[in-house]
Amino acid sequence: MLTCPKCGRKIVDEEAVYCPYCSRPLKTEVTKRTDFPTAGGVLLIIATTICVIAGIMALAVFLVTYQYTYYNGLAGYYSYMPRYVDLFAGFFGILALIYGLAAGILSLKRKKFLHCLIGGLLTVGEGFLIVIAFAQQWPSSWIIGMVFGAPMIILSVAGLLFVSIAKEEFRQ
Ligand SMILES: [Zn+2]
Predict the structure, then answer these.
(1) Whether residues 5 and 59 fall in one domain
(2) Does 69 lie in the same domain as 114?
(3) How many Å lie between the centroid of ligand 1 and the Cα of residue 17?
(4) pLDDT digits (tens, 9 = 90+) for 90-125
């Protein structure tokens, strides 16, 4: 809990800038605020949005290939095999969605630096998973993987970079 340096009263609101009793500014030195956490947060949120789309696509691909193999049991050798990497990419996408979105919002609020990093790393990981998952589907499906995976990786890494630069601005 904060204590006012002038009137000595306790202040419940941890984020108070001025003392509610005597109006004295509470922080003598305010950390310089840059736009980096905001930029990082926005980038992480965009990366997360792509994660969701790509994750749903990966799940859909898994379900379709799974069904295809099921109905062509005898010809299974020639038909598409369900790739569990798609299923994994789909579920990991949901995890990355929850954590990545939280990281983006926390970064906008300059809170929980460590969780911002973890969220960003998860979206980077999901980017690679999507590239791998789609690269294995059809002869030229790696292009789909790159179209979604590459922006996810680039945006997340850029977001992580911005968040890291602004580490000092985060409250733990
Ligand atoms: Zn006061």
Answers:
(1) no
(2) yes
(3) 11
(4) 888 888 888 999 999 999 999 999 999 999 999 999
Residue-wise burial string across 81-108, b where 16 or more C-beta atoms lie within 10 A, e elsewhere = ebbebbbebbebbeebbebbbbbbbbbb
Q: Are 135 and 142 a contacting pair, CB within 8 Å? A: yes
Whether the per-residue pLDDT at 17 is higher than 80: the answer is yes
Q: What is the pTM of this model?
A: 0.73
Write out the residue range of the structural domain in which residue 4 sits. Answer: 1-30
Clarify whether residues 60 and 6 are in a common domain.
no
54 and 91 Cβ atoms separated by less than 8 Å:
no
Q: What is the Å distance from ligand 1's center to 90 Cα?
A: 53
Q: What is the pLDDT of residues 129-150, one digit of tens each?
A: 888 888 877 778 889 889 999 9
In angstroms, rounded to a whole number, what is the distance separating the alpha carbons of residues 139 and 143? 9
* Same domain as 112, residue 149: yes
Q: How many domains does the chain have?
A: 2
Question: Please, which residues have CB less than 5 A from ligand 1, an ion?
Answer: 4, 6-7, 19, 21-22, 24
Question: HSE on the CB side for 60, CA within 13 Å?
Answer: 6
